[in-house]
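Supplementary Note 3. Input sequence used for the single-chain structure prediction.
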Amino acid sequence: MRNIDKIYIDGQFVTPKGTETGDLHDPSTEEKIGTVRLAGVEDAQEAIAAAKRAFPAFSRTSKAERIDMLKRLNAAVAAHVTDLTEAMSLEYGAPQTFTRFAIPHAASSFLTMASVLEDYEFERRMGRARVVMQPSGVAAAITPWNSNIGFITSKLATAIAAGSSIVVKPSEMSAIQTQILTECLHEAGLPKGVFNIINGYGNVVGAELSRHPDIAKVTFTGSTAVGREILRNAADTFKRVTLELGGKGPNIILDDADLNVVIPAVLRMGFINSGQACIAGTRILVPNQLLDDVLDRLKQEIETFKVGAPSDPDAMIGPMVSRKQYDRVQSYIELGTQEGARLLTGGLGRPAGLDRGWFTKPTIFFGVDNQMRIAREEIFGPVLSVIAYRDEDEAVSIANDTPYGLQAYLHGTDSAHMQALADRLDSGRVVINGAPHEPLAPFGGFKQSGIGREYGVFGLEAFLEPKAVIA
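The predicted structure, written as discrete structure tokens, is reproduced below.
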């Protein structure tokens, strides 16, 4: 049992003034594995005050000083990859196929931002003006449970590069991961108050961060509903806001696709992170003439996607993070049948042989209309919908007919044609033939998938304000 009873403010671990506690569970067994003492409004205010005190000196540090800090942070996190992986596996249930990427990527986010910083010019000439890019002020980051460590490191790396001090509120459901990560970050020896990390409920600590007048910038990753609330709270003081929200990604199979290659890739994109990912390609769009063949191949290939605990190296899909999330996914599976969609595979309940844990059967519906709720709403679990299309114009229309626009996928053999087709999709990112993640490329969404961009130069400038000095 782990008892997480500290938060991190002004360079030290302190006991929260808040007295509420939350239980922590192993989603693979449903067993209680610890508790977390939660911060309250007063704790949030103390963290903001610490970041505010640190900001004047930190905002004037040089690029070289910040690059050195980023490299120290990378080294500190990289030295504990095993500990962080074990924590993520225990507390979140992520399969090894995900943790093998997620934890090293989290550590590397500091080096990626250091490389961006090396080439970035904070001053430039525009006509008679000297334009200075300066930190917008104290930042707040609110992060979710589905890749807790990576979201904290990427947002922290960007704030450090920009010269902004920051208060981070991770999901209280990820407190063990947060504790181990914070201990790593502490080892890097950054100035006091530059970063502060406090567990707490979103409607308490998150709300205080999003409305406090001393916070100039909020960066949030999570649901569209919560993002909408943060935007409302931030409006009173005109905070700069970056929101990375939900998705309902189109996973488009083109008529020239090599199905031997494409079918496994389509399922990997759809079931990424056990389906608990905003970037998952959950709508599989298939040409009419390929539909029967694709359905047969999907049903055959999904048999290779083993569901199991992180201790099983062959498991590709883990449990849902909580009973609440399990129940949510089950409700959508039931809804799909009520809406008239047909089950290709999967369905209600746990997979065979798994009698405990919040495991869900990988489920694929076909005969889906794009107006059905299972095709329009983010389920956040291993549930996919197959939608047939007549031609590419209809495929683009279906792909774009969604409130979201975060990440889309194209699968085919004609690279030039897919590049042209990508330009027609209303999506912040388009991934062609399962291309690997590019950490320098901007990440964020169109429409209700968010506001602004993260990563690379675009992410850095989201923490900066341009000031023109004209002489």
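The CA atoms of residues 142 and 220 lie 5 Å apart. The chain is about 40% helix and 20% strand.
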